[in-house]
């Protein structure tokens, strides 16, 4: 049945795109896809009628749904029939409220995914966020080069009039060849949109300067903690450039960016502590960025709660040890949870952290009693791990505003609450 739904979604999506001709912005990469997509949507929400794909629906089944104006896949055959009929209705009767811009996220969980989607979701603007030295999903590919090749299929789908927006600081991305217009972003001096003077000001947010065509544009990003948000802001600025919007207007639009829940979202914790909630997911590059943010932000003590980074294949042991080494330099206490917890501990000890300041656990729920004992007023706690480790349970246990958990935390539906 999945193959049938997939085929029908493809046919409907192609026809709907042909009829309504929305400007399509597609985002891919091994890290930062959803946050970048959400930031583009929030920044340009007052510019034109715009719609984004919800959550991380970015597969051959999930990605086409946004073109049918649907937010989630069907959970049973009847729901799927209604989704498909809704798509057919868009073709039969013109929807005057159909979005002028669609922002979608494209994943590469296995070889062929992006090539399949790019064949009928042909972007006008394609963004490649980051891949990193040890990218997620690498276990499904022979090597990193094969994954990069897969990601580059989205860039290949661009016409010569299209725009490729590429991370200048990631060599595997920056080296991708394209006949489309190319805009690069990053801290690199060669970047088209250059990030300068980035600083975590406080728990209230970060400041930075974006430099474009020898002009500097200072801005402040409320609630955004860590240089991952600098990359997001630069990518969003590049989108504005490709849309030929005045640069001063783009900066005002960018200042609407806020972190998505579970993606370094700041929360008040017990005993007036500060939680940096990164429980949605993680990778080596995003974990490194999160630990850097933890180190930079002001706080009485820094506590790092690190869950497994999954889907790394042969890189798993090395990357967990490396993260432990970085955590030792970024935190006063380290709690590691999951299958690879002992490797994180090994790395921290190697970097000189005292063993008495390190704890390891198998499951997230086991962390909670000890963490509650450690936390004191003014502490900053980073909580980050892959989806399968369920670190949002730890966030829930130590957050102050528990009654708003469904609004502030990831995976708060009954389905996830009952899932181990």
State Rg. 21 Å
> Could you say what the CATH topology of the largest domain is called?
UDP-N-acetylmuramoyl-L-alanine:D-glutamate ligase
How many domains is the backbone divided into? 2
Specify the biggest β-sheet.
9 strands, mixed
The low-pLDDT segments are: none
Order of helices and strands: HEHEHEHEHEHEEEEHHEEHEHEHEHEHHH
Please count the helical segments.
15
Proportion in β-strands? 15-25%
| Sheet with most strands: strand arrangement | 2-3-1-4-5-6-7-8-9
Straight-line N-to-C gap: 27 Å
Task: Let me know the average pLDDT.
Answer: 94
Question: Would you count the extended β strands for me?
Answer: 15
| Gross morphology | globular
Report the CATH C-level class of the largest domain.
Alpha Beta
| CATH-defined architecture of the largest domain | 3-Layer(aba) Sandwich
In CATH, the homologous superfamily of the largest domain goes by the name Mur-like, catalytic domain
Helix content: 25-40%
């Amino acid at each position: 049945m999945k193959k049938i739904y997939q085929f029908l979604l493809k046919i409907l999506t192609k026809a709907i795109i042909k009829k309504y001709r929305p400007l399509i912005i597609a985002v891919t990469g091994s890290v930062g896809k959803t946050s970048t997509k959400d930031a583009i949507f929030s920044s340009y929400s007052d510019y034109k009628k715009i719609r984004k794909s919800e959550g991380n629906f970015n597969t051959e089944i999930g990605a086409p749904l946004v073109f049918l104006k649907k937010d989630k896949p069907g959970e049973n055959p009847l729901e799927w029939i209604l989704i498909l009929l809704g798509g057919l209705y868009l073709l039969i009767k013109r929807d005057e409220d159909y979005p002028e811009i669609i922002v979608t996220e494209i994943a590469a969980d296995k070889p062929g995914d992006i090539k399949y989607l790019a064949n009928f979701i042909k972007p006008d603007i394609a963004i490649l966020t980051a891949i990193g030295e040890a990218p997620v999903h690498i276990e499904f590919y022979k090597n990193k080069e094969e994954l990069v090749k897969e990601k580059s299929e989205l860039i290949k789908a661009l016409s010569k009039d299209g725009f490729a927006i590429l991370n200048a600081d990631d060599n595997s991305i920056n080296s991708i060849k394209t006949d489309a217009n190319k805009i690069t972003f990053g801290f690199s001096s060669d970047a088209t949109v250059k990030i300068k003077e980035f600083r975590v000001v406080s728990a209230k947010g970060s400041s930075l300067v974006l430099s474009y065509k020898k002009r500097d544009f200072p801005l402040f990003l409320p609630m955004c903690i860590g240089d991952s948000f600098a990359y997001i802001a630069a990518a969003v600025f590049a989108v504005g450039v490709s849309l030929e919007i005045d640069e001063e207007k783009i900066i005002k639009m960018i200042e609407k960016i806020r972190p998505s829940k579970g993606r370094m979202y700041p929360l008040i914790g017990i005993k007036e502590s500060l939680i940096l909630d990164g429980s949605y997911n993680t990778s080596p590059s995003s974990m490194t960025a999160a630990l850097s943010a933890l180190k930079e932000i002001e706080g009485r003590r820094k506590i790092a709660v690190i869950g497994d980074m999954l889907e790394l294949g042969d890189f798993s042991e090395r990357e967990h040890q490396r993260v432990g080494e970085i955590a030792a330099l970024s935190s006063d206490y380290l709690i590691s949870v999951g299958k690879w917890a002992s490797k994180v501990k090994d790395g921290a000890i190697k970097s000189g952290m005292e063993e008495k300041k390190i704890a390891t656990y198998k499951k997230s729920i086991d962390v909670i009693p000890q963490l509650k004992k450690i936390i004191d007023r003014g502490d900053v706690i980073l909580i980050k791990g892959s989806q399968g480790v369920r670190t949002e349970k730890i966030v829930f246990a130590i957050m102050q505003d528990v009654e708003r958990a469904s609004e502030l935390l990831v995976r708060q539906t009954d389905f996830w609450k009952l899932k181990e």
